[in-house]
Specification:
- It contains three helices and 26 strands.
- The protein has 373 residues and is mainly beta.
- This is DCBD1 protein.
Length: 373
């Protein structure tokens, strides 16, 4: 839980989370306070990673400070500010409960703080370049002559999607090694932001150009040559190598379709069969002013569906879907909505912003089904 007027981006779960001060990475406001209470499962302990800590310096950090306390043992860590920083980027506690207190008074500068945590069941919380290098050193054991390709595994906390920082690249090419690691992992579809999770990746030789794509609610940037790049490996794809193949659609169905008569009096049928991604010209469209329109895909048999790619009608027809929900069925009669990790509400996927670009969204976990709407 969190309370106070100085809280920024916050996502807290029993397994991991991310929190920041208000306006981060812009200057944090004067005279604010935020108190976060981190609670893990009994019998586990919390590991905290300092992504950024930039509070204006003062004697004994009296003006702005970060203080961490363990209410079970009474142990305190800090107070921290710019002239009194943590001795290591990772803090290992012996408690399942930690209180994080941020205070500010009058000041002129400072980005504030960015902090993440995970439990002892999920060690290795990393998302900054310092944390990546730390993970590599641990994995390599101090080897002075590392191999060309370095493989390692880290744990990404929930809430990385909205932290500050850029990513360059895409799942097929890989990502510039200067990308924010866990943010790139969400873009690549190997973890869900609301859950976090363990990430397996390799650090390999860079490439000349990284193409920009929109995926899983994040837009990567177009990037130039880099010395190294990050490539993420999907655990479920390692178990099923064909899981990234394009699935064949046996039949399309829809709630309705648009019968258009253009200005020249020519008929154009926007029927469901034209919804295939590779179709040239116009696509499928529901009857105008239709509410709760749906498009249905029949895969012929039950398949392992790991994601969906959407695209607008075409360059000639500037129509596209900006957001959508997904339902699945094994028999075509009984439908189950795809829900967020909380299980309380249907998940809304971010769609397209124009009619040209392809946008992908990943299902974590995958859906085993025959029919998709």
């Amino acid at each position: 839980v969190s309370a106070g007027n100085g809280c920024g981006h916050t996502l807290l779960t029993p397994h991991s989370g991310t929190l920041s001060s208000k306006n981060y990475p812009g200057t944090y406001p004067n005279h604010t306070m935020c108190c976060w209470r981190l609670q893990a499962s009994p019998g586990t302990s919390l590991l905290l990673a300092f992504g950024d800590l930039d509070l204006e310096p003062s004697e004994h950090c009296a003006h702005s400070s970060l203080l961490l306390t363990d209410p079970q043992s009474g142990t305190a860590y800090g107070p921290y500010c710019r002239n009194s920083v943590p001795s290591a980027p990772l803090l290992v506690t012996n408690s399942s409960t930690v209180t994080v207190l941020f205070n500010s008074t009058s000041h002129r500068s400072g980005r504030g703080l960015l902090l993440s945590y995970a439990t002892s069941q999920h060690p290795g919380t990393h998302y900054t370049q310092e944390h990546i290098r730390y993970a590599e050193r641990v994995w390599m054991g101090g080897n002075p002559n590392p191999p060309l390709t370095i493989c390692f595994s880290v744990y990404c906390p929930a809430g990385c999607k909205d932290i500050h920082g850029d990513i360059w690249g895409n799942p097929k090419q890989g990502y510039r090694d200067t990308s924010v690691l866990c943010k790139a992992a969400i873009h690549a579809g190997v973890i869900a932001d609301e859950l976090g999770g363990q990430v397996t990746l390799s650090r390999e030789k860079g490439i000349t150009l990284y193409e920009s794509t929109f995926a899983n609610g994040l837009l990567s940037k177009r990037g130039s040559l880099s010395e190294k790049r990050l490539i993420f490996h999907k655990v479920y794809c390692l178990l099923s190598p064909a899981c990234d193949d394009v699935l064949e659609v046996v039949a399309f169905n829809a709630s309705s379709w648009w019968h258009e008569v253009d200005v020249l009096g020519q008929d154009r049928a926007w029927v469901a069969e034209r919804a295939a991604l590779s179709t040239t010209g116009h696509s499928w469209a529901a009857k105008p002013n239709t509410e709760a329109a749906w498009l249905e895909l029949d895969l012929g048999t039950r398949r392992n569906v790991t994601g969906i790619i959407t695209k607008g009608a075409s360059e000639q027809h500037n129509y596209y879907v900006t957001s959508y929900r997904v339902s699945s069925s094994r028999d075509g009669k009984n439908w189950r909505p795809y829900r967020s990790s909380s299980g309380q509400e249907d998940k809304v996927f971010e769609g397209n912003a124009d009619s040209q670009a392809e946008v992908s969204n990943t299902f974590i976990p995958p859906i085993i089904t025959r029919y998709i709407r």
